[in-house]
Amino acid sequence: MTEQAEELKCLENRTGECSGAVKYRAPLSGTGRSFPRCDAHWAARLKKQKEIRNRYAPASDVPPRGFDPTFCGESWDEDRSIA
Q1: Number of domains within the chain
Q2: What is the model's pLDDT at position 80?
Q3: Domain residue limits at 36
Q4: Does residue 21 belong to any structural domain of this protein?
């Protein structure tokens, strides 16, 4: 008995702009889940992730513009919280 290979479809195939190989890509978010993306959409996702990191700079001591520490009692620095 031969097993059929799973035919992967790009997560973003509804846009009609897919190109290149479709394969599971390493997770970039905290979910730990991999999703199939074509080469074109993977490149776009990597670009978006870079923009997110540049904007929010998770390792930075300086919060992004517009961050309001009074909103939901959040704090940019985990070591300091609003009481």
Answers
A1: 1
A2: 52
A3: 13-73
A4: yes
